[in-house]
Amino acid sequence: DLLHWQQLPVAIPESRRFMIFSGSAVVDWHDTSGFGVHGRPPLVAIYTAQPRAHRGPQTENLAYSTDGGRQWKKYSGNPVLNIGLRNFRDPKVLWYAPRHEWVMVVSRAAQRRISFYVSANLKTWRYTGNFGPAGDTSGVWECPDLFALPVANRPGETRWVLKVDV
């Protein structure tokens, strides 16, 4: 009801090797990932893993839940995206229905770029391009978001918005 809250344990705990950084979560309604059970769609979290002591690249990883988000299991095939950069983080994932594929925007923070990837199953990602640097380049770019907004006075028409925190 968004009024009464209950404290739960950490959903995706850190390990001895990796800290867990931000990302996003989706409902995989079509079970493209294959994580679903008994016809129920899984919740899938896409997050950045940061090696402890900041040695090594930041990578994008998956965890999934088949019980509505109470328990999460890290995907055994992690990382699902590793391009070898130390500042590659904050994946935002969405389902793009017209092409029946997942879209990920992820920050190349120090380069002040946002990279775009697509996937059929959330596990295998294909690079499609970059945005930036442009606009405010005074700080690192983090936590991108990509969403469609309706155009005023034009029913059925939308425009895509890419938001970046600086």
UniProtKB/TrEMBL annotation:
GO biological process, one term: sucrose catabolic process
Lineage of source species: unclassified sequences, metagenomes, ecological metagenomes
Record-given protein name: Protein containing Glycosyl hydrolases family 32
SUPFAM superfamilies reported for this sequence: Arabinanase/levansucrase/invertase
Any one annotated GO CC term: cytoplasm
Coiled coil (residue ranges): none
PANTHER family: EXOINULINASE INUD (AFU_ORTHOLOGUE AFUA_5G00480)
Pfam families (alphabetical): Glyco_hydro_32N
Listed GO MF terms: sucrose alpha-glucosidase activity
Keywords: Glycosidase, Hydrolase
Protein family: Belongs to the glycosyl hydrolase 32 family.
Glycosyl hydrolase family 32 N-terminal domain span: 1-164
